[in-house]
Amino acid sequence: MKREAGIKWLFLDLNSYFASVEQQENPKLRGKPVIVTPMDTDYTCAIAASYEAKAYGIKTGTMVKDAKKMCPNLHCVMARHDKYVAYHHRIIEEVIKHTPINDIWSIDELSSRLPPNKRNKEDAQKIAQKIKEGIWRNVGEAINCSIGFAPNSLLAKIACEMQKPDGLTILEQESLPQSLLHLELTDLPGIGQNMNKRLRNAGIHTMHDFWHIAPKHARKIWNSVEGERFWYLLHGYEVPKLATNTSMIGHSRILDPNLRRPDRAITILRKLLMKAATRMRNKGLYTRMIIISARTTTGQYQSYCASMPATQDTITMIQHIDILWRHIIATFMQNNIHKREILLIKKVSVKLLKLTKESMITDDLFAQTTQQNIIKATKNEALISALEGLQAKYQKDVVTIGMTPKTSAGYVGTKIAFSRVPETHEFWD
Ligand SMILES: [Mg+2]
């Protein structure tokens, strides 16, 4: 393992992403305090806050009721995940014009390994400027991003966090550790409250303390090789990726003509999900975001996503994709209302994103529910492995998972963010 010279990685994070997209879509919201909420009630929390709202102390996770008290002229808008996914694709298209993309970490974060001839300060600044201007010009003037450059992707992410909004920070090997010493340990990605407690118990209170421990000591504190890996990355080493460092697991399929009716297509989508979920569990990972998409035989395309507490549980994931599927079908039907064409689905796909290891689920917004999920997962595990066993044995569809259709009200407690809550009559079944 060696310390990387120069700046090898770019990390980009969109600032207040969901809120910025809403400000882009509705110019009246620009320059105003805005929060995005998953439901139209005071008893849920903000899933994004504009910088104007952040100035009042409102953050992701603040209860809507409290946010309204902190800022009386607050604008609350319901999340529209279809829009956020569409903007995500446009942003990716723009970024890729200026630098290759290596990892898409989430809907608003990506990293890029710079080509060898671009690994210097001057070129890095030029690339960042081109990306920012390209996004303003071709995606939306209200969409800002922070960009960090550093010898590896962890340091690039840390650099990216240092200046918000619209930041540009370059962390060079030679500036370590001075450039990091002003940070709190909890400012580092991956160090949440639980890990911070473990560090404190080990007598490590500051960045300075952490910098000077031995890498093996970090491994002991983490109780995993991840700790040692984290230490090396922080020190500017290029650390080989662990096999578990998967950022996305997904499957898609072109449907045979006899499977193109929406009620048949969803059964294929559920099977693809089961396959992806099995792969994910085998890697010891949990997902916090599911995206599904579908293309019709007439070329229409829709994609919806749901965020959720970290889960490994197939039944929970299937409940989420069933809801997303109804949104997709409702949108296709709405677009098709005057054409009287029969709705046929040609291609379906499912992606599991925001993958995390259990040891890293520390500072999650929904952390309190993670344990419940794990318990629920073990309950469903027997059922799922039975299903997987049967499918492997007979190589055909002897069993499928069927879900009773539910109205949106039945899912209010699951904290999924919808684009909008559909009316019952919009459901295809
Ligand atoms: Mg962001």
Description:
- The structure is a single chain.
- The protein is of the alpha+beta class.
- The protein has 3 domains: 17-83, MutS, DNA mismatch repair protein, domain I (3-Layer(aba) Sandwich); 85-234, Reverse transcriptase/Diguanylate cyclase domain (Alpha-Beta Plaits, 2-Layer Sandwich), CATH 3.30.70.270; 249-426, Dna Ligase, domain 1 (2-Layer Sandwich).
- The protein is built from 13 helices and 13 strands.
- The strands form 3 sheets. A 5-stranded mixed β-sheet has the order 5-6-1-7-8.
- Strand 5 and strand 6 (109-113) form a beta hairpin.
- Helix 11 runs antiparallel to helix 12.
- The longest helix is centred in the C-terminal third of the chain and has 28 residues, at 367-394.
- The radius of gyration is 23 Å and the shape is globular.
- The model is unreliable at 362-381, 395-401 and 403-429 (pLDDT under 50).
- The structure holds magnesium ion.
- Magnesium ion (MG) is lined by residues 13-15, 17, 108.
- Residues 13-15, 17, 108 line the site of magnesium ion.
Features of this protein?
5-stranded mixed β-sheet, globular, 13 strands, Dna Ligase, domain 1, Alpha-Beta Plaits, MutS, DNA mismatch repair protein, domain I, 429 residues, binds magnesium ion, 5-stranded antiparallel β-sheet, alpha+beta, 3 domains, 13 helices
Quick overview:
This protein folds into three domains: 17-83, 3-Layer(aba) Sandwich (MutS, DNA mismatch repair protein, domain I); 85-234, Reverse transcriptase/Diguanylate cyclase domain (Alpha-Beta Plaits); 249-426, Dna Ligase, domain 1, CATH 3.30.1490. Helix content is 39%, strand content 17%. It is built from 13 helices and 13 strands.
